[in-house]
Amino acid sequence: MSEQEGTTFLQWRERVQNEASGDRPQMRLLMMVAAAVVVAGILIGTIVLMLS
Fold it and tell me: What span, in angstroms and rounded, lies between the C-alpha atoms of 49 and 42?
């Protein structure tokens, strides 16, 4: 991996972190709710399959 690719990756990572935490708190909340819904769906699905 060249230094230019590493710098590009670091810039991309920093931009993603900034967008997730600072600029749009509503988007961060939405993503947390979406993740919780997915986890709950997986758990409920697993329980239903185990009981059937």
Answer: 11
Structure tokens at 46: 């697993």
**Side chain identity at residue 46, one-letter code:** T
Q: 7-52 pLDDT, tens per residue?
A: 687 787 787 777 666 556 777 788 889 999 999 999 999 999 999 8
Structural domain spans, the chain: 4-51
**DSSP codes joined into one string, 19-43:** IIIII-HHHHHHHHHHHHHHHHHHH
pTM over 0.85: no
Number of neighbouring beta carbons within 10 Å of residue 7: 10
Q: Kindly give, in sequence order, each residue whose CB lies less than 8 Å from that of residue 28, ignoring residues fewer than 6 positions away.
A: 20, 21
